[in-house]
Write a structure and sequence with these properties.
The protein has a five-stranded antiparallel β-sheet. It contains nine helices and five strands. The protein is 43% helix and 19% strand. It has three domains: 67 residues, Beta Barrel (OB fold (Dihydrolipoamide Acetyltransferase, E2P)); 68 residues, 5' to 3' exonuclease, C-terminal subdomain (DNA polymerase, domain 1), CATH 1.10.150.20; 50 residues, Helicase, Ruva Protein, domain 3. It has 207 residues and is α+β, with helices and mostly antiparallel strands.
């Protein structure tokens, strides 16, 4: 079983990333919340924590091998829990994971059905089922969120980068933290796009 892949991001589609590894390209299905982050990492080398499965009717003769990938082992572990819920298939689970794992786990722990219903593939009945099945089991996934170093003031370019990260699903405090870490590592960063890429690299290195 392939449990981890490291390669260059060759392309990103609406629901998958093409990872180039040693001249071979792998199509890897990813959760909706990871798409924007992977687009920002186009052309760079990343590591995905993976799950393999076969898609199709087990009673039929045509089963297609698939690989699912996550940006952290934590996201993969959450997905394994999430798809235990009745009615949450693999594809449906990936589409429903439209926000970062910590936010989703927090909503489930709080019983926030309205927030869950705002996600793709989740209606009122499914939201209730998710809460009934998982509430009380996801404390380890709830994201406390790293703090921005005290006294840190972001420049205009860094503020723009933070806004981009927030639009892509990060909490404001998290976005500012990773930007501060990136700029500390490379003080020459001055353009928002470069800052965003560096912030994601900093975030990835701490997973």
């Amino acid at each position: 079983m392939i449990c981890r892949l490291t390669g260059r991001v060759a392309a990103v589609t609406g629901e998958a990333v093409v990872l180039e590894l040693g001249g071979v390209c792998y199509e890897v299905l990813v959760p909706a919340s990871a798409v924007a982050e992977l687009e920002a990492l186009a052309g760079e080398e990343i590591t995905l924590h993976t799950i393999e499965y076969f898609e199709g009717n087990p009673a039929g003769s045509h089963l297609v091998p698939r690989i699912i990938g996550f940006l952290s082992a934590t996201d993969r572990a959450f997905f394994n829990q999430f798809t235990k819920v009745k009615g949450i298939s693999i594809r449906r689970g990936l589409r429903a994971m439209g926000v970062p794992t910590g936010q989703l786990a927090d909503a489930i722990e709080r019983g926030d059905a309205r927030m869950l219903m705002s996600l793709p593939e989740v209606g009122k009945k499914t939201a209730g089922q998710i809460i009934a099945d998982l509430q009380g089991k996801l404390h380890d996934f709830v994201e406390a969120g790293p703090a921005t170093p005290a006294g840190t003031k972001l420049t205009d370019a860094q503020q723009v980068a933070a806004s981009i990260l927030v639009q892509w699903g990060d909490r404001r405090a998290d976005a500012e933290h990773w930007i501060a870490a990136a700029v500390e590592a490379d003080p020459a960063l001055s353009e928002p796009d470069a800052i965003v890429r560096a912030a994601y690299r900093a975030k990835e290195s701490h997973r």
